[in-house]
Amino acid sequence: MEKYIELLKTLISTPSYSKEEANAAAVMRAFLEKENVPFLTKENNTWAYSKSFESGKPTIMLNSHIDTVRPAQGYTKDPFSPITEGDKLYGLGSNDAGGPLVSLLATFIHFYERDDLPYNLVFVASAEEEISGRRGLEIVLSEIKPIAFAIVGEPTKMDLAMAEKGLLVLDCYAHGKSGHAAREEGENALYKAIQDIEKLRNFEFDQVSKVLGKVKISVTQIEAGTQHNVVPDICHFVADVRTNEFYTNKEAARIIDELIESEVKPRSVRLNSSGISEEHPFAQLVKKRGITVYGSPTTSDQAIMSFPSVKMGPGDSARSHTADEFIYISEIYAGIERYIDILEELKL
Asked: Which terminus of the chain has fewer Cβ atoms in its 10 Å neighbourhood, N or C?
């Protein structure tokens, strides 16, 4: 197990911001070579299949990402120095998602040579997750064999996020007519935007998810005007929408567009809600073990998966993107054990 902790320390020491993951990808590939595991690559993404891959079996994908955000303000330790203090391992990306990444890799290698499993495994170390980039897992999915189910490694305290909300960002534009602020001239686009924002604040989508709850709309940015004495003729505001499984992002954008007068422009509709049902074999095994099950409000690479998937990994989401990020080494060891335990019994 120690070699996986050493791998994580090397990854912490290797800056890997989104779109700048080449060196971290090289670290992953060197590790796989040392383990005598053949792998495939595309840009900064790396993937490998279990040794006894059989076309007649369903394939489970074990996926996590190698990129990190930039260090948050307030670090008191070097974010690129893997510092160990007791059970804690500090460093940028240690928790999100280095711990889950090396835990899934350890799980994959544990099963790598097994030919008695009722499924195949493919391990994917992907890029650009932190920015929902298009040169990460998205370009890998078209290359690998059909996937029946996926475990996405993110810090969930090894609880099961059996569903994840989708992310829809809308740029909204209220249009008016400019005029002099001192006279009764123009149509104030800012006032129109405020009316629409109030509509969004009070609006509720009909369908409520048992796991993910309501669709959530938050207006997070607004800008208008050029100077104090000119009535603004346009007001731009941004709505952050978190969708549940009952609405595709495309459907949610249409509903909002029909609700408000402002022009609505989705930045993307590709990051939809994802997950599994309570009847899925993986969910049943998790419940049998008394593991907490919940719906996640945050977005990961699950959003681009059209097949059943879950989010599960060692670490705590509350530590992600924080100064002096850390993970407990014991969490990683426990995570590997839990992954192996569940996969030993899983049948799709």
From this structure: N
- C-alpha–C-alpha distance, residues 93 and 240, integer Å: 26
Per residue in 188-204, pLDDT tens? 999 999 999 999 999 99
Q: Within 10 Å of residue 212's Cβ, how many Cβ atoms?
A: 25
Name the residue among 90, 154, 73 with its Cα closest to residue 323.
73
Equal CATH topology for 2-164+273-345 and 166-266:
no
pLDDT of residue 55: 86
pLDDT digits (tens, 9 = 90+) for 266-293: 999 999 999 999 999 999 999 999 999 9
Cβ atoms 164, 311 nearer than 8 A: yes
305-308-311 Cα angle (round to 5): 80
Q: 298-334 burial by CB neighbour count: b if 16+ within 10 A, else e?
A: ebbbbbbbeebbbbbbbbbbebbbeebbbbbbebbbe
- Among 143, 171, 156, smallest CA distance to 64 is for 156
Give the span between the Cα atoms of 326 and 94, in whole angstroms. Answer: 6
Measured between alpha carbons, how far is residue 43 from residues 13, 25, 126, 147 in Å?
Answer: 21, 9, 10, 21
How far are the Cα atoms of 190, 230, 260, 281 from residue 187, in angstroms, in the given order? Answer: 9, 11, 17, 58
Alpha-carbon span 122 to 60, nearest angstrom: 6
The fold adopted by the segment(s) 2-164+273-345 is Aminopeptidase (3.40.630)
How many Å from the N-terminal Cα to the C-terminal Cα in the chain?
28
Per-residue confidence (pLDDT) for residue 31, from 0 to 100:
98
pLDDT at 172: 98
Q: How far apart are alpha carbons 100 and 267 in whole angstroms?
A: 30
